[in-house]
Amino acid sequence: MSIHLMHLRFDTRRAVVAPCYRRFVFFGYARRLSTTTVEPSPVAARKRPTPVLLLHVQEEKAKFPWNASLWQKRFAQLGYQSTLALYEQRPGALLTDATLNQWYDDLTAAVGEQHFFPPMLLAHDGPAWRLAQKYVSNKPVSAFVLTGADRPDLQVKSYEFEPQFNILLATRTPPAFLEDVVDQVVPHEDEEKRIDQVCEWMDEVGI
């Protein structure tokens, strides 16, 4: 598995490149964005043209962080390049429209022209759902997957976008405004089996 590392900050220090991971880091008053890209495994049966962009938001020093590395490892084995965009915010910080707009700007600056083909966007948990919906309202994607956020009280704001791509809801609390136009699956409690469910769907829709 080939990986690259880069750090970028909002200051005048130069980026440092190492041969292991590629990571962009943005710091702000109440947020931090890091991105980690994992290249396809050299032993994958074939290299897939569609990249995968994963989004997640968690509190700083979270006790139970999402194990995104499992997802990226599986995607690499299947021949996909994947990039994790991970936002860390201060405990108790509110996700205001201003914050969402800043996150979106950070995300587009970080991934920029990184992908030749529109990525499949996979968003994990509620705050990432909101950011993902803003992203697909403004940027092209090949497919859209929402997972996590198994909370009945979750309120996700609707954005106006025409779903001209495949969408999968792998969650027990799907946004009502998407339920009638998408594929749905009840997610397995085991993380690796949830990955299986998403990968099987990707194969079915030809991603």
Structure notes:
The protein has helices spanning 68-77, 97-111, 126-138, 191-205, and strands spanning 5-7, 16-18, 22-27, 31-38, 52-59, 82-89, 120-124, 143-147, 166-170, 183-184. The chain has one domain: 3-Layer(aba) Sandwich (Rossmann fold). Helices cover 26% and strands 26% of the residues. It has four helices and ten strands, in the order βββββαβαβαβββα. The chain has 207 residues and is of the alpha/beta class. Residues 2-20 and 151-155 have low confidence and may be disordered. The strands form two sheets. The protein has an eight-stranded mixed beta sheet with strand order 3-4-6-5-7-8-9-10, with helices on both faces. The protein has a two-stranded antiparallel ribbon with strand order 1-2. β5 (52-59), α1 (68-77) and β6 form a beta-alpha-beta unit. α2 crosses α3 (126-138).
Characteristics:
207 residues; alpha/beta; Rossmann fold; eight-stranded mixed beta sheet; two-stranded antiparallel ribbon; 10 strands; 26% helix; globular
Quick description:
Helix content is 26%, strand content 26%.
